[in-house]
Amino acid sequence: MDDLGTPQGFDMTAGDAADTAPAAGMISQYVKDLSFENPNAPAIYQNQAAPGIDVQFNIGAQQVGEEVHELVLKIEVRAEAEGKTAFIVDLSYAGLFGFRNVPADQIQPFMLGEAPRLLFPFARRVLADAVRDGGFPPLLLEPIDFAQLYMQQAEANAGTAQPNTPETGHA
């Protein structure tokens, strides 16, 4: 990254007319929203049973500037032990991505397949730290193949009248 936080090799300013090579890059990443709830403390710490974990993901993308898109990776985790909630974590981790000379039909596959792959390790760390700071062992999520998930969703939507839109990430 340069002094302004722009990825090296990615210039958000207009180049000369001969500069027509496609370019995509991450401009920044950030926690957009983070919530940790521990509704049954301190009694939950006396429970010796390992909690059952339910993890839900949602990806949303929207254009926020002429050549800039935001991706929000939302992760919701609910842990229960013996019928009681151990903890609930809601994380919205976002990134800004810049595009130059990229065909419009290539932006959505990047934003819903590649961009979440780039953000996920950082979101995973924030989530693990929040759970650990809440008094539980860190929750380490398994890697996710976002490109494969995007391809599966695109194939499933190929026969529907409402294709994915870059704004929402779903039909």
TrEMBL record:
Record-level GO cellular component terms:
cytoplasm
The cross-references to Pfam families, in alphabetical order and at most eight, read: SecB (PF02556)
Provide the alphabetized UniProt keywords. Answer: Chaperone, Cytoplasm, Protein transport, Translocation, Transport
Query: Where is it chiefly localized?
Result: cytoplasm
Name where it's found.
Cytoplasm
Q: Does the keyword Iron apply?
A: no
**What Gene3D superfamilies does the record point to?**
SecB-like
Reported function: One of the proteins required for the normal export of preproteins out of the cell cytoplasm. It is a molecular chaperone that binds to a subset of precursor proteins, maintaining them in a translocation-competent state. It also specifically binds to its receptor SecA.
Query: NCBIfam families, alphabetically?
Result: PRK05751.1-3, secB
The entry describes its oligomerization and partners as: Homotetramer, a dimer of dimers. One homotetramer interacts with 1 SecA dimer.
Q: Which family does it belong to?
A: Belongs to the SecB family.
Query: Under what name is this protein listed?
Result: Protein-export protein SecB
Q: Which species? A: Sphingomonas carotinifaciens
Top-down, what is the taxonomic lineage of the species of origin?
Bacteria, Pseudomonadati, Pseudomonadota, Alphaproteobacteria, Sphingomonadales
Encoded by which gene?
Answer: secB
